[in-house]
Specification:
disordered C terminus, Bacterial Protein-export protein SecB, about 40% strand, single chain, alpha+beta, five-stranded antiparallel sheet
Length: about 160
């Protein structure tokens, strides 16, 4: 007889970490003398890969660019990664877990990294608004005609 415990779905977080982080202030020190409020563009991108049997890595990358006119005040890119265990989950549901649940778990971490690095760079904090990864996932899946899970999410957000 098989043990019913062994067939239970498993979704667990093994590790959450900053995979990559970069900051550029190309027009320093003049950038700190700007009095005009910058326009802020935020881009999100995520992808997942299988690293072992039932073990996946999801990376959520956020790029924040602040500009006044055509001058870039700062550019921050942070890649927050997580290693997740998914076992006994139907194959049809794995894309949803990797495209919705994993980015939802990583987002608060990358939000904190972005805010912290921008403040450390000498600028007012950038607070990322919540993102509905489920709605984005389903919208892109519908747009792709029910193909594979979306790998790039680029909402247009301006402050």
């Amino acid at each position: 007889m098989s043990d019913p415990q062994n067939n239970q779905p498993v979704f667990s977080i093994e590790k959450i970490y900053v995979k990559d982080l970069s900051l550029e202030i190309p027009n320093a020190p003049q950038a700190f003398l700007e009095r005009e409020a910058p326009s802020v563009d935020i881009q999100l991108h995520h992808n997942s890969s299988n690293v072992d049997e039932g073990v996946y890595q999801t990376i959520l990358t956020v790029t924040v660019t602040a500009k006044v006119a055509e001058k870039t005040l700062f550019l921050v890119e942070a890649s927050q990664a997580g290693i997740f265990v998914l076992r006994n989950i139907p194959a049809t549901d794995i894309d949803v877990v990797l495209g919705v649940a994993c980015p939802n778990i990583l987002f608060p971490y990358v939000r904190e990294v972005i805010s912290d690095i921008v403040v450390r760079a000498g600028f007012p904090p950038v607070v990322l608004n919540p993102v509905n990864f489920e709605a984005l996932f389903h919208a892109q899946r519908d747009a792709q005609g029910q193909q594979a899970a979306p790998q790039i999410i680029t909402p247009s957000i301006s402050h």
